[in-house]
Amino acid sequence: MTxxxxxxxxxxxxxxxxxxxxxxxxxxxxxxWVHLRLCLTCGHVGCCDSSPNRHSRRxxxxxxxxxxxxxxxxxxxxWCFVHEAFV
Length: 87
Prior knowledge:
With about 90 residues, the chain is an alpha+beta fold. The protein is about 15% helix and about 20% strand. It has 2 helices and 5 strands. It has helices at about 25-30, 55-65; strands at about 35-40, 45, 65-70, 80, 85.
């Protein structure tokens, strides 16, 4: 994995997953997800790009919060949607 020095890392804050049990929008819609991503600016939990609704990417675009981390057990990485790169 190549890490990217990204200016959007300045937006990263200490956050708590909201909600802690799944994709916020999918839970409301009753929709399935594949993997979960945590917004590192506000704590929004959204579904990944392999999920039908891609809520994490939508949140990043709508709210200007581009850096997410995986919420999957055993995964420890961050991604910038703007640069399409690990950070």
